[in-house]
């Protein structure tokens, strides 16, 4: 009730109460800690609407969602734990993006995940006293940010993997630290569940993530698929043939299972283009046979061309949602996906693609060998993709915010 009643207060009222609180020793200390950790944040102490996003260091789907959220609510500022200015420029943020004292170093070094133990402390230290609306774009520790009188909505890409699906991340951890991952994850689970209480309303990017939120936080979540700029992807005008390559794309990390796609392409003897970059790149290159081509770090135009040129887009991992699969469908490209995760939301079996039930090399090699792109109508595939457009996302998020206002 305290959060909802504060949502009806004016920014000056909220700021006044916060300033009064700083007269107490605890408030004074908290303000100085915030100034020390977030030295640039004091310029936005009067901000009414803020977006908190985990990090902006490697361009991905969650970063594009954070940008859209900031535009949608006309945010005064976006706060993030790690910041690479090139990433911000690539995405096209049109409002201030602020990070903590070492955030740019963390973003440039690409080692921000090694700072996981300090992330909650850094977020806790952030002070946004006048905020009436706080939106978090969450998949790690961002909801550790202290509760204020603002209404708080969290767009959840997934509950923190390091806590709830830590086995998927252990290959990325230094070998010396792997024995302590299980007890560390247990601690994180308890903390993450406590931080979830700072959120008034959860939105999930897929039904799979809504289920995870229910399991992890014992909270309900409305499913709001992420925004896809369908118009940015051209519908291919020529028929697909068996000579076209399969294409897989995304961040090269183990849980996306690009290794499975590479091994299957080797076994089936079919052409596969793997586009992206990341810590798993060298291992994938070592696995690639003569029919596999790896394109490191394609730009947006190059990636769109690959998606349109594909015989099918390959989606072998269990993804939270998988925006690239929808972007491929916007080009009229069918999808071969694992029957799990976000693919269940964004692929229509038999109409826009087909599912593979197993995660074995043999099953995927058979799927590659049997796939006929002529069985799919590109126009119908693109029509399916339009339901995940930006307008639908905007409408759903606004509806959630309006209902929060109505419940106040």
What are the main properties of this structure?
single chain, 18 helices, 7-stranded parallel β-sheet, 41% helix, 3-stranded parallel β-sheet, 408 residues, 13 strands, alpha/beta
Question: What this model shows, in words?
Answer:
The protein is of the alpha/beta class. It has 18 helices and 13 strands. The chain has helices spanning about 1-5, 10-20, 25-35, 60-70, 85-90, 105-110, 120-125, 160-165, 180-195, 205-215, 260-270, 280-285, 300-310, 325-330, 345, 360-370, 380-385, 390-405; strands at about 50-55, 75-80, 95-100, 135-140, 150-155, 200-205, 220-225, 245-250, 270-275, 290-295, 315, 335-340, 355. Strands 3-2-1-4-5-6-7 form a seven-stranded parallel beta sheet. The chain has a three-stranded parallel beta sheet with strand order 8-9-10, with helices on both faces. α14 (about 325-330) crosses α17 (about 380-385). The longest helix is centred in the last third of the chain and has 18 residues, at about 390-405. It is globular, with a radius of gyration of 22 Å. It starts with a helix and ends with a helix. The relative contact order is 0.11.
What is the compact description of this entry?
With 408 residues, the protein is an alpha/beta fold. The protein has helices at residues 2-7, 11-21, 25-37, 61-72, 85-91, 103-109, 119-125, 161-164, 181-195, 207-217, 258-268, 281-287, 300-309, 323-330, 343-346, 361-370, 378-385, 390-407; strands spanning 49-53, 77-80, 97-99, 133-138, 151-156, 201-204, 222-223, 246-251, 272-277, 292-296, 313-315, 335-338, 353-356.
